[in-house]
Amino acid sequence: YRVHASVPANYTIEKRWPLIVALHGSGGRPEDIMGYVRSLLGPRADDCIIAAPEGFGSMHLRGDADETNRPHDDLVALRREFRIDDRRVYLMGYSLGGHNTWLGGVLHADLFAGLMPLATPLQVVGNEVLFPDLLPNLRNTYTLFCWGENDNVGADGNVREDGGNAAWNRHMSQVMREVGVRGFQPIELAGVGHGNVRPPADAVSEWLNQKRRRYPKHIQQMYRLPENSACYWARCVELQTPPLADGELRIRLKKDDDLKKKQRQYMTQKLGVFEASVEGQTIRLRSRNAETIELLLHDKLIDLDQPVTILRGSRELYSGRIPRDLRVLLREAASDWDFDRFFTARVLIKRGRPVRFNDEP
Question: Are the C-beta atoms of residues 109 and 138 closer than 8 Å to each other?
Answer without folding.
Answer: yes
